[in-house]
Amino acid sequence: MSPFTLFLYMLRAALLSTGGMGNLSSLHNxxxxxxxxxxxxxxxxITVGQLSPGPNGLWVxxxxxxxxxxxxxxxALVAITIPPFLVLGVDRLYARVxxxxxxxGFLRGLVLAVVGTFVTVLFTIFQSSGIDGLKxxxxxxxxxxxxxxxxxxxxxxxxxxxVGLLAGR
Amino acid sequence: MTLIRxxxxxxxGWLTEDEFxxxxxxxxxxxxxxxxxxxxxxGRQTAGIRGIAISLFGMLLPSAIITMLLTAAYxxxxxxxxxxAALKGILPxxxxxxxxxxxxxxxxxxxxxxxxxxxxxxFSLILISLSVALLASGRCSVTVVLLIASAIGAGEGALRARxxxxxxxx
Lengths: 169, 170
Prior knowledge:
The structure holds 2 protein chains of 2 kinds. Chain A is mainly alpha-helical. Chain A is built from 9 helices and no strands. Chain B starts with a helix and ends with a helix.
């Protein structure tokens, strides 16, 4: 796989989703069955994305690196920078189609499907690692703590990592 | 987002509160990272095309480089057994945080449909379940699922509009 192919897939995924994580399900669906990436690489990339500064959407920069090295990172960065420029067109169109019911319905369907596919892929990734009691407990703990704005995401990830480390001894 | 808002609205006065809220709504409708779209709009407001280029550069490049370096550092220690053990704890944490993200993403459309009535909320929940079922069945790719759900949403919206128009005599 070339960096350009990676760029095209990442561009398509970003164009067909909203938010920085919405492209997860498309990319998982494109890369894992073709064995270009593994579930493990997706988890690693998402984790690095959450640990590093800037928008979480930069997780694909990490995924690109894990797949193709620095060129993969660059391909990913360019791919996710292009779709947000559509906001300039949306800005211009907005006044005209704002209250058009079909447009509103289209967006609603898209966002809800992004959520549905996102959840499905998260579950697939979780399942692929082998489920045990500790993992379910950590998942629920992270889910609960994730709602508290005062607790940084980094602390949750590092804390759960430490639990994994202690349990692995 | 909070930080951009504080700088652009409260401190520098590049945008009014209303302009900022409108811009943020547009960004949520745009594909890709919302914060990048917001950076583009705020950058244009302050200094045109040059503003877009400079603010995007400042927002993305440092973070992207750090992300890349962190990944590179990770790759060099990946094989060590303690790292593998820690990953066993990190995976469920990332998935759990992902579920938080999923609920946050669905909050706005669900709230909007709730305001339209119970039937509309049900319709939204059915769209989510349908996407899960279609993808889990393994017969549709993610792209196809997204397109099907959007088409159903657009069709329902158009139908509802026509019914409302018929109900109100000219």
